[in-house]
Amino acid sequence: QVPAAGGPSTLTFPEIRHQLSQRDAVPEGYEVQVLIRWGDPLLGDAPDFDPNAQTPASQAGQFGYNNDYIDFQPLPQGSRNAEHGLLCVNHEYTDTQLMFPGIGSGRAARLRPTAEQSRTERLAHGHTVVEIRREGGRWSYVKGSRYNRRITGETPMRVSGPAAGHDLLKTNADPTGRLVLGTLNNCAGGNTPWGTVIIAEENFNYYFGGAAATTGAQKDAYRRYGIVAEAQYGWGRFEDRFNLDKEPNEPNRFGWVVEYDPYDPQSQPVKRTALGRFKHEGATHVVNHDGRVVFYSGDDERFDYLYKFVTARPWNPNDRAANRDLLDEGTLFVAKLQDDGKLEWLPIVHGQGPLTAANGFANQAEVLINTRRAADLLEATPMDRPEDVETNPVNNRVYVMLTNNSNRTAQQVSPANPRPRNNHGHVIELIPPAAGNGFDHAATEGGRWAIFLMAGKPGQDAGAQYHRATSDQGWLSCPDNCAFDAKGRLWIATDGAPTAAGIADGVYATDTAGAGRALTRLFYQAPTGAEVCGPRFAPDDKTLFLAIQHPGDDTGSTFEQPSTRWPDFQAGVPPRPSVIAIVKKDGGEVGT
Ligand code: FEO
Ligand code: CA
Ligand code: CA
Ligand code: CA
Questions:
Q1: Which tens digit of pLDDT belongs to each residue from 210-235?
Q2: Cα–Cα separations (whole angstroms), residue 92 to 122, 313, 388, 441, 453
Q3: Whose CA is nearest to atom 1 of ligand 1?
Q4: Is 263 helix (H, G, I), strand (E, B) or coil?
Q5: Closest Cα partner for 384 from 347, 359, 409, 353?
Q6: Atom of ligand 1 nearest to the CA of 93
Q7: Beta 302-304 vs 306-314: how paired, if at all?
Q8: How many angstroms is it from 546 CA to the middle of ligand 2?
Q9: Is the pTM of this model over 0.90?
Q10: Which of 427, 536, 547 is nearest to 484 (CA)?
Q11: Ligand 2 centroid – CA 403 distance (Å)
């Protein structure tokens, strides 16, 4: 029997069942609308999707692959319009084996593309801006809108902040160290109070390879970022910049966050180096009590760290242009979660503590380019893969999704990462100190942290910990991305549950306070092979947008014989990563 209501939870949707399926599922009373799919034409002259003939030219004007972060920026700008706006979507990476006919299966397929196919993949990376509308209850996108835009692995972008122009950022193609072609592996993201969008560069190491990974002058730095001789993609065979032996500095130009203006399709995106270089899962903001803006960011790797960046100045709500370079000045911090529950933030500033010339840092640029090594020296707390980090708009606490860490040993556990072989992950709550009429997210001490939940199946997986009324359907594994509704309820999207727990990835919702705290309930179940990314509510909470990433990415799945053909279910059409809009059939708020 599926529980019909939420027990002490304020979430009243009828919970769905854990299952694995080629199709996705939502609770009774809800509807899934497929809004936009890989290959759907965006620009006016873009051709329709043709699964057998994707080319660089077609892909450059079409929705990209493996949608991840989702933002919704209302139209007109500055309004709270919930039915018309710009959908801003990351495209993290490509599943070569599901994109091209005859390419084979598995990771080996990633090394097989021709020069043209590898360029198609590069153009399927990056980001999309697309105008969307809800009319008569149905969402659709506007083909050929003047706002529609593709940002790709080749789009020119400026480098700004302390590392711009440093020798380690210079290449043959760019002797200035200030102009990079493209953004790659855009996983989660964030936005700013002034209406710009931030896209984060995560696993940039996948694209670079060469003998220099083990023999070159930068081999130690490469190793710290996971750059190895054998790249995961074969792009370096056709493009020198992905070959470390020819362009040893190109990888230093990735691993940053990129800010761009979605309302101006001509604007040039900017890599903001002040926020550090690591596998940025995302970068979400909260406005501090004093008007400065604080960005939280996880570095998604086992035993890596949690960061925040505090702007030097308050933002200006009355003059959008005055905020244009706010992200170039400020302080980056890394978190230390003390065993007694105290939270400490350590400044990553050249000349302070161990970040000196004696340890190989000539200036702040070198500190930022090697953020991970700087944080190692500061003895930050190694976490279990910090993914999305977001601030609850109601209680101002910050929630950190920790996906998992199967490598943590019994000797390496600590109160903040308490489980050895943490296959299911956990969620931590950061409590900033009170200040004036709000909270001080900029504080370096005075904050606390607490475990919100420990994922896994209660009664089966050691250490699993939720509200005791959590149902047999409501437990989760591998928390990855998250979102809050206006009531301060946490919506958690998972990545990796099929492998870790034998259940599909999905979306779970829970109260964060009151009688239903940490009582997670299953709201959405993804199709086989997929993870769920980018949960984003429209400003009226009546639509939940989800990015369904890598559907059909199961072992042995191929273009010809995929494990699912979601969402089209048409012969000859492979699965297509897509953004869906989930609405309540009665038009009410999602979750109520
Ligand atoms: Fe792209 Fe950390 O997931
Ligand atoms: Ca993710
Ligand atoms: Ca999020
Ligand atoms: Ca992921």
A1: 999 999 999 999 999 999 999 999 99
A2: 10, 32, 15, 29, 28
A3: 187
A4: coil
A5: 409
A6: 1
A7: unpaired
A8: 13
A9: yes
A10: 536
A11: 9
